[in-house]
What we know:
The structure is a single chain. Helix content is 43%, strand content 18%. The chain is of the alpha/beta class. The chain has a single domain, classed as NAD(P)-binding Rossmann-like Domain (Rossmann fold), CATH 3.40.50.720. It has a 7-stranded parallel beta sheet with strand order 3-2-1-4-5-6-7, with helices on both faces. The site of NADP nicotinamide-adenine-dinucleotide phosphate has 31 residues, from helix 1 and helix 4.
Amino acid sequence: MKNQVILITGSSSGIGRETAYRFASEGAKLVLTYYKGKTRGERVEKKCRGLGAADTLLINLNVMDNKSIASTVVKVQKKYGRIDLLINNAGTGVFLPLKDQTVRDIEIQLRTNLEGLIKVTRAFLPFIRKGIINIASFLGKHAGSELATYCASKYGVRGFTQSVAEEYPGLIICSVNPDETATHLTGYSGRPPSEVADVIFRAASGKIRFKSGGDVDVWKILK
Length: 223
Ligand SMILES: NC(=O)c1ccc[n+]([C@@H]2O[C@H](COP(=O)([O-])OP(=O)(O)OC[C@H]3O[C@@H](n4cnc5c(N)ncnc54)[C@H](OP(=O)(O)O)[C@@H]3O)[C@@H](O)[C@H]2O)c1
């Protein structure tokens, strides 16, 4: 991973932050993004440098905003001219019965978790050299009550991942599916995000076998 350019969306907290630390300690060049958490993003960048990242670039990215995606591409292109690995991690969830979810709740989940991920992938595809890891979920394979919109977004991510892998056989592509992980999203209940980050790192470095477009289920790897 030394000197490889790794872009991790949503790296200001949770799974994305721990993934940034894991790649930093291997000497990667990291493109880190935050949405609302500028100070958290700056702290992550500083720690990545301390852990041994070969270089860092911190960008404010809102995956729901087309202009924000376009300007992120320009910044990355200008600094590195390529990325080796795109990790689409940014995501959000509103865990309520469907009747209690507002139209805005529905839009934010689908636009962040699915539409944004698709648009970021499309925008970076010409510059990706090795592969793409999409963070889907256990809830992209198993339905649950009070999770309808979130599940729909994550089932969608897995279908998207499979299709893109067919279109781009030269890239290594997978969905990494975490189960419950202790982050802001879950009220800090579940397994440590560093364990998920390690699975992401192992999938990226060829230490976990998968068919391109397929699933890496965290609960199976860490059982
Ligand atoms: N935690 C779990 O149990 C679990 C299980 C399965 C899958 N996942 C998935 O893992 C991924 C990471 O989630 P997490 O659990 O680590 O949650 P988290 O701690 O809440 O982190 C979410 C990250 O996404 C960023 N983000 C949110 N909306 C965004 C937007 N519109 N544009 C760009 N970035 C945005 C946040 O940025 P700011 O904080 O800067 O606003 C933050 O960095 C998500 O895709 C989630 O669905 C989580």
